[in-house]
Amino acid sequence: MKVLKRFGKGTVGIVVINVVIYLLINFIPGLAENLLLSTDLKVIIQKPWTLMTVFFSHEIHIHILLNMLIFLIFGSELEKITNKRTIFTVYSLAGLSGSFVIVPISNLIGNTTLIAGASASVFGIVAACAVLRPDQLILRSKARWWVISLILLNVVTIFIGSQTSDSSAAHLVGILVGLAIGYLLKKNDQSKNHVAKVPIQGINITSKSL
Q1: Residues with Cβ < 8 Å from 34, sequence gap 6 or more?
Q2: Tens digit of pLDDT per residue, the chain (210 long)?
């Protein structure tokens, strides 16, 4: 299919999962309680899978629309230079890290509502893409400026002490995870390129990966 070829199987697959779960949550009563993340530790122990299903779940249409639009743009760019496994890895690790951070902070500020959204995962994808292709033009701006803007926005939100500071902290952690993975991928690629230069009878043979 043209869509899979253009945006990548991993990227499209994650978008489809998010859309399907969004529809199910909004049409099946009570499903949200089993997929969204609670701030109550007792509930999390009873439903540990919610630490992961939360970053595939959305309740509000504008939330999923913005998240999936950003993810589709940056995820497809990242998948072009890596692979679908990298997309799933960054998305999952950034989201899971966000889950572990948002729960204690939510309890600290007294936020008891169920948590939904893939923003930490999506921002992790943006960050990884920015590390690997910092000068890549995306929507008329370099990738590096997109991730810098996301960092500043979430830092400001935390320090002004709003009720969304728990979400912002989770977003920042997702970004940091994406930056870390992007750095490791870039370092690994540079190492492979350096080692792959093997002189054979006066000829340098260079192979590139990633």
Answers
A1: 47, 50, 53
A2: 677 777 889 999 999 999 999 999 999 999 999 999 999 999 999 999 999 999 999 999 999 999 999 999 999 999 999 999 999 999 999 999 999 999 999 999 888 899 999 999 999 999 999 999 999 998 889 999 999 999 999 999 988 877 788 999 999 999 999 999 999 999 887 766 654 444 434 334 333 344
Contact 48, 12 (CB under 8 A): no
Q: Where are the alpha helices (DSSP H) in the chain?
A: 2-7, 9-27, 32-35, 41-46, 50-53, 61-81, 84-109, 119-132, 143-159, 165-195
d(CA 21, CA 7): 20
pTM above 0.85, yes or no: yes
Contacts 24+ apart (CB under 8 A), 102-106: 102/37, 102/39, 102/166, 102/167, 102/169, 102/170, 103/37, 103/39, 103/41, 103/44, 105/165, 105/166, 105/169, 105/170, 106/39, 106/166
Tokens matching residue 43: 């509930």
* Tokens 């000829």 belong to residue: 203
24 vs 33: CA distance, rounded Å: 12
